[in-house]
Design a protein that fits this description.
Catalytic activity: Couples ATP hydrolysis with the unwinding of duplex DNA by translocating in the 3'-5' direction
Organism: Aquimarina mytili
Radius of gyration: 26 Å
Protein name: DNA helicase RecQ
Strand order of the largest sheet: 3-4-2-5-6-1-7
GO molecular function, one term: 3'-5' DNA helicase activity
Structural class: alpha/beta
Number of helices: 21
Keywords: ATP-binding, DNA damage, DNA recombination, DNA repair, DNA-binding, Helicase, Hydrolase, Isomerase, Metal-binding, Nucleotide-binding, Zinc
Bound molecules: adenosine-5'-diphosphate, zinc ion
């Protein structure tokens, strides 16, 4: 094992750092001790050094498996700029390029070799001819169907430990719940791996969730006291990023859209301008941010509900990497849930996706400390409430919601459980529209009995009723709202219902007119 001063000198010489971040040292020691390792560390925690530094001190090469073909070249360029002999092999290269890399490998001119999992099988022969001292599997959650980003090519990686039984393997990921963790170790054949779990608690990030109504106004209000701070707004659709960026530009903000449909040069430019602070706001689909290293992102907004907590956590994690206080804001809307439910339905592993979406919803609808929920998802328990989320800062108060519940439930009964939330609210509020008239709902006894409550508030109350099990949404029957066993207790047994008092979110200024 290399001496400690030698390790620190290498850290300084090649990476320019004076000390290690939490866990880096113990992970590196464990590699030198010959162990297999599983590293769970949030994005920005400093995972790369954990294998890049040992790579410099070990006799043979370090093989790095990475799914991010688009980023490989940048990563390798960065290493080479620091004087590290690194190369990559992936499908974007010509045969000639690949052969010259093979020659360099045999000539021991390479310390770190980045490989896409798809390209690994082509390297089988060459790998038998060289000394492999360490294998790193980056983004290791891709191996698991339980992870949020499953890549079939990753499932072949079990081969590595069979081919190199005595070479330490290190698997790294930013996101893995317990099931995924176990799955990673099983599939990579590293059941005795030492596990290193970094804390996922990013105390400097405030957490806030609001109902997704009048989002543009809410965003403009949010920005009023952050006129120059850099931020990212994540949207579900490309179209939304475009319209949102344009609306922000119309209000004088320097905002650009970023998504997979934007031409490559333009995307690179947006990314660069954002890093250099010449663009203030990027409205992006999830494609944005992977691998970008900008420490002063002061806020992240989710315009739409993310499809799972892993993705959400990773995206808010792009704020406040410098450790300074930063804000995050998530808009929660029922329409998004329906949309995501449809995506999940169409996906290959429907059950997993739906379960993950459910956890995301629970987070968004929580009436207790959000950080507790977020961290418990990653297997981390905190004793005290965080004091830096909207629930902690402004705890919900409860009202007697029995009458509200009775009105809603009896309306659902009278329309024979045949309508989605929107129409139920229309009937409650006595709306005069086609959805109501076409079916003669204006004749019902409950028509208009809820016109003292605004449409938006009804929506929130009904969502609460769903969460408490008084109603359910039949997702496979056009989202019709239906009664449950529990509804009957309210309708027939006088069960009391407690609902959380709805807050006035942001006073929307008259100048911020919805466009
Ligand atoms: P991850 O892969 O976990 O997302 P990276 O390896 O990309 O994180 O590191 C995130 C940032 O932290 C990079 O800018 C990196 O240079 C920096 N970093 C890593 N280790 C240290 C350290 N020991 N001291 C200072 N900065 C570090
Ligand atoms: Zn809290």
């Amino acid at each position: 094992m290399p001496e400690q001063p030698h390790i620190l000198a290498t850290l300084k010489e090649y990476f320019g750092y004076d000390s290690f971040r939490p866990l880096q040292q113990e992970i590196i020691d464990s590699i030198f001790a010959g162990n297999d390792n599983l590293v769970i560390m949030p994005t920005g925690g400093g995972k790369s050094i954990c294998y890049q530094l040992p790579a410099l001190l070990l006799p043979g090469i370090t093989l790095v498996i990475s799914p991010l073909i688009a980023l490989m070249k940048d990563q390798v360029d960065g290493l080479q700029a620091n004087g590290i002999k690194a190369a990559f092999v992936n499908s974007s290269q010509t045969e000639n390029e690949q052969h010259s890399i093979y020659q360099n490998l045999i000539d021991k001119q390479i310390k770190l070799l980045y490989v896409a999992p798809e390209s690994l099988s082509f390297l089988d022969t060459i790998l038998s001819q060289i000394e492999v001292s360490l294998i790193a599997v980056d983004e290791a959650h891709c191996i698991s169907a339980w992870g949020h980003d499953f890549r079939p090519a990753y499932t072949q990686l079990g081969y590595l430990k069979n081919k190199f039984p005595n070479t330490p393997l290190i698997a790294l990921t930013a996101t893995a719940d317990k099931a995924t963790r176990q799955d990673i170790c099983d599939q990579l054949n590293i059941s005795n791996a030492t596990q290193h779990l970094a804390s996922f608690d990013r105390k400097n990030l405030s957490l806030e969730v609001r109902p997704g109504n009048k989002r543009i106004e809410q965003i403009l209000n949010f920005l009023d006291n952050k006129p120059n701070d850099s931020g990212i707004i994540y949207c579900l659709s490309r179209k939304a990023t475009e319209t949102l960026a344009e609306k922000l530009r119309n209000q004088g903000y320097n905002a650009e859209a970023y998504h997979a449909g934007v031409v490559h040069e333009k995307r690179a430019k947006v990314q660069e301008d954002f890093i250099n602070d010449s663009i203030q706001i990027v409205c992006a689909t999830i494609a944005f941010g992977m691998g970008i290293d900008k420490s002063n992102v002061r806020w992240v907004i989710h315009y739409n509900l993310p499809k799972n907590i892993e993705g959400y956590y990773q995206e808010i994690g792009r704020a406040g990497r410098d450790g300074l206080p930063s804000s995050t804001l998530l808009f929660h809307s029922y329409a998004d849930v329906v949309q995501l439910q449809k995506f999940a339905d169409m996906s290959g592993n429907k059950e997993v996706q739906l379960a993950k979406l459910d956890r995301m919803k629970q987070y968004a609808e929580s009436l207790s400390c959000r950080r507790k929920i977020l961290l418990s998802y990653f297997g981390e328990l905190i004793e005290k409430d965080c004091g830096n989320c909207d629930v902690c800062l402004d705890p919900p108060t409860f009202i007697d919601g029995t009458i509200i519940a009775q009105k809603a439930l009896s309306t659902v009964t009278r329309i024979k459980e045949q309508e989605p939330i929107g129409t139920v609210i229309d009937v409650l509020r006595g709306a005069q529209n086609a959805a109501v008239y076409d079916k003669g709902y204006q004749q019902l006894r409950t028509y208009g009995i809820g016109n003292d409550i605004s449409w938006r508030d009804w929506q929130q109350y009904i969502i609460q009723l769903i969460n408490q099990g008084y109603l359910e949404i039949a997702f496979h029957l056009n989202n019709k709202l239906r009664l449950t066993e529990r509804s009957k207790k309210v309708l027939f047994n006088n069960e009391k219902v407690s609902l959380s008092h709805l807050k006035e979110f942001e006073k929307i200024k008259a100048t911020h007119v919805e466009q």
